[in-house]
Amino acid sequence: MSGAYALARPLLMIVKGETPSPMAKRFVDYVLNEGQEAIAAQGYVPVRQVKTAAPLQ
């Protein structure tokens, strides 16, 4: 192994206002559900438990 590694950092998703738009909610729901497969396939660690300040409604 060369000892090289890809730079990675956490992805923060922030929505504007107390209630996200329907499109924003669909995107966040996708990333936290089906999108986790794509994240794992790229070699990153998928989210195990979602922590939010307030649940998306």
Task: Describe this structure as you would to a colleague.
By secondary structure, the protein is mostly helical. It starts with 21 loop residues before the first helix and ends in a 16-residue tail after the last helix. The mean pLDDT is 78.
Describe, in short, the structure shown.
The chain is mainly alpha-helical. It contains two helices and no strands.
Largest sheet: none
Helix amount, in percent? Answer: 25-40%
Unreliable residue stretches:
none
User: How many E strands?
Assistant: 0
Structural class: mainly alpha
On the 0-100 scale, what is the average pLDDT? 78
Strand content: under 5%
Alpha carbon gyration radius: 14 Å
* Measured distance between first and last alpha carbons: 46 Å
Question: Can you count the helices?
Answer: 2
List the secondary-structure elements in sequence, H or E: HH
Q: Given the C-alpha coordinates, what overall shape results?
A: elongated
